[in-house]
Amino acid sequence: MSCASCSLSVETILNATDGVIDAKVNFANASVLVKWDEQVIQPSAMKAAIQAVGYDLIVEDKETAGETVEEIQRKEYDQLKKHTLGAVLFSIPIVAIAMFLPDLPYAKWIELALTLPVVFIFGKRFYVNAWKQMKHRVANMDTLVAVSTGIAFLFSLFNTLYPEFWTSKGFEAHVYYEAAAAIIAFILLGKLLEDRAKSNTSSAIKKLMGLQPKTVVRIAEDGTETTVPIKDVAIGDILLVKPGEKIPVDGKVTFGNSFVDESMISGEPIPVEKTENKEVFAGTINQKGSFRFRAEKVGGETLLAHIIKMVQEAQGSKAPVQKLVDKIAGIFVPVVMGISLLTFIVWMIFGGDQAFTHALLAAITVLVIACPCALGLATPTAIMVGIGKGAENNILIKDAESLETAHKVNAVILDKTGTITEGKPVVADIIWSENANQEQLTPLLLGMEKQSEHPLASSVEEYFKSKEVKGTQSDQFESITGQGVKAAFAEEHYFVGNHRLLEENKIAIPKDIQAKAGKMQEDAQTVIFFANAEKVLAVIAIADQIKETSKAAIAHLQNEGIDVYMLTGDNEQTAESVSKQVGLKHFKAGILPGDKADFVKELQQQGKTVAMVGDGINDSQALAQADISIAMGKGSDIAIDVAKMTLTTSDLNSIPKALKLSKQTVATVKQNLFWAFIYNVIGIPIAAGVLYAFNGFLLNPMIAAAAMAFSSVSVVSNSLRLKWKSL
User: In terms of Cα–Cα distance, which of 69, 26, 28, 25 is closest to 398?
Assistant: First the structure.
């Protein structure tokens, strides 16, 4: 498919085919999501229906899914790259001869020799596609390119072979090989850049699928361990997960305990403790311990599989934006051809002695002045400059569509962890009791945390490392599941853990420490107690720090009249605390990945243009559903792949910049389209000869070509102005 109108043609044909219930074509990744009645139609019949309109459908089984498509797309891209390079290399000398060396001996023949491969080899696709479109009475950008370059080439070929046809009548036999070749080179270059930008769209799904391991250790009733392929796992199987391994399917722990990194599901940075009867999910990563669990959901029923399916459907459900140029091209081509034909007829009737000469010249001039070069450059040049400017400002933009849409955004959804906050638990504060000997006790605390397997222990360890404290090795060490750790130093016992650990061991909490701990919890900080056998010695606050720039960025967006929402899987208290600190009016806590996507839909149904900003796999469904998806550069590969924009910095101030860049770029595109068409609006009537009746002026085709060349220069120059605008 060469343009958005192609995807519309494919979708229309499929939906009109008997047995197809619904078809949604995704132009971005060249795929179609089809619901069909197996009793009425099979994929082979759909393939035939699509082939009839000049396209093709690749149908694969699940075992080889993606392999054939990737191979074909890679070959197509490689061929396009060769054709673009060839067209550019051959066009340069043609344009040089036409502009600077028109009196070179055999100039026309040299131009003809160089133009032949551009038209019949490098630009062949335009003529083939235009012919297929014409058979179905539709026109697109290919038609525009094929008609203008075809007429220019054929007219030039005639004038090269039979120059005396014109010279005998007192006219010069002009050729327009440079127009035909340059147009093809420009359009191929634009298509190459577009294909390159779209090439990674489907990799997000592949990476999601890659989260599930290929094999798993299954334990038989007699205790025998066997490594089996993931597809052989059945509900009820007992599976073993070792430290560092990915969990293969959804289930419940039956034996053992560990901590599991579930940030890909919840987005929260702190690993979750897993003990007997606790649920585990496919794709999450086990930490230091090992455990056994019973498989409860396998294959397409796991939470990961549902995320994959929802991302696919959200990507596929977006109706491809019909590019303005394609819309105009569908009307522009037949109108210009009609005007050209009408010009010829009028001149033949009223042209007098020079009727045929004037008729042919005027008709050709109309087609030449309607050359789509400026039209083809209007959008891509502005987009290219806009994307380049974005990159300079730490905004990586994946496609033109998102850059065009971003200026309409009036609702922004922010994930909490890793987006508003740093996404990494750190020690926010340590408060010691009045009589505690910090110098003596700190090495003991560090020694215990070094031995602990709890994920928060590493935060404490990092904190003391930065202060160059050395830990003391304990004489005895014990990990207490769900509570913390216990250690002995010189026969005296110490404890590090939660409130429950203190209660179980009847350890007193001094009033001042109790008050400080309560304040920490109110501020959405995780509290860890350090105590001896009698009382608490210190309280440690662990927090996911808010980024320095988050508050200013959110205020900026709200001042622009944009509604800003925070969605998080964290608890209500933490969400409320973070919202207050950054000045947010709207937030939702305890949100699951599917809920985020549903909230995006809810806002869209209210007529809002929604931008989703996130950094985790748990955000990928909502990112795919949103009108504009923005990933934080330090986030997961999945979020970055699904998102249409990526902020290479963690600074949320890049979001208002991205929206302003979109506004500037869209304004430039509109200006470019104006300049591209103003020449046609003024030039086509003059080319047709309307001034001849008043002053005898008939536009020379060469001047017409020069006018169109100037329109291209004005369009490119206007696009380059974007570079100097401030964000």
Answer: 28
Beta pairing class for 258-261 and 238-241:
unpaired
CA 292 to chain centroid, in Å, comes to 38
Please indicate whether residue 415 is annotated as part of the active site.
yes
Strands 563-567 and 411-415: what pairing? Answer: parallel
Q: Write the pLDDT tens digit of every residue in 600-622.
A: 999 999 999 999 998 767 788 88
Q: Residue 396's pLDDT is what?
A: 78
Average pLDDT over residues 285-311: 81
What is the C-alpha to C-alpha distance for residues 458 and 238, in angstroms, rounded to an integer? 32
Other CB atoms within 10 A of residue 433 CB: 19
Check residue 3 and report its DSSP letter: S
Of residues 306, 536, 522, 283, the one with CA closest to residue 432: 536
Residue 411 sits at φ, ψ, to 5 deg, of -145, 130
Contact 187, 122 (CB under 8 A): no
What is the band of 530 on the pLDDT scale with cuts at 50, 70, 90?
A: very high
To the nearest 10°, report the CA torsion of 166, 171, 173, 175. -130
- At 162-212, the pLDDT tens digits run 999 878 877 778 788 887 888 788 778 767 765 664 554 344 456 666 677
Q: Which residues of 690-702 are buried (b: 16+ CB within 10 A; e: fewer)?
A: eebeeeeebbbbb
Interatomic CA distance for residues 678 and 684, integer angstroms: 10
Give buried/exposed letters for 447-476 (b at 16+ CB in 10 A, else e).
bbbbbbebbbbebbbebbeeeeeebbebee
Calculate the alpha carbon distances from 379 to 31, 91, 322, 369, 477 in Å: 25, 22, 13, 19, 67
Catalytic residue among 415, 570, 615, 619: 415
**What is the distance between the alpha carbons of residues 164 and 53, in angstroms, rounded to a whole number?**
43
Confirm whether pTM is higher than 0.70. Answer: no
Facing residues of 215 across strands? 229
For residue 18, give every residue at least 6 positions away whose Cβ sits within 8 Å of its Cβ, in sequence order, or none.
40, 41
- Average the pLDDT over each of 415-429, 521-535, 653-667, 695-709 and give the range with the smallest value: 695-709
pLDDT-wise least confident of 298-312, 351-365, 387-401, 702-716: 702-716
Contact 176, 159 (CB under 8 A): no
**pLDDT averaged over every residue in the chain:** 82
Question: DSSP state, 495?
Answer: E
CA atoms of 355 and 688, how far apart (whole Å): 13
Contact call for residues 124 and 79 (beta carbons, < 8 A): no
Which of the residue ranges 390-399, 616-625, 709-718 would you say has the lowest mean pLDDT? 709-718
Q: For the chain, how many residues are written?
A: 727
The 10 Å Cβ neighbour count of residue 231 is: 11
At residue 200, the pLDDT reads: 43
Q: Are 611 and 411 in contact (CB under 8 A)?
A: yes
Half-sphere exposure of 287 (CA within 13 A, CB side): 19
CA distance 3 to 445: 64
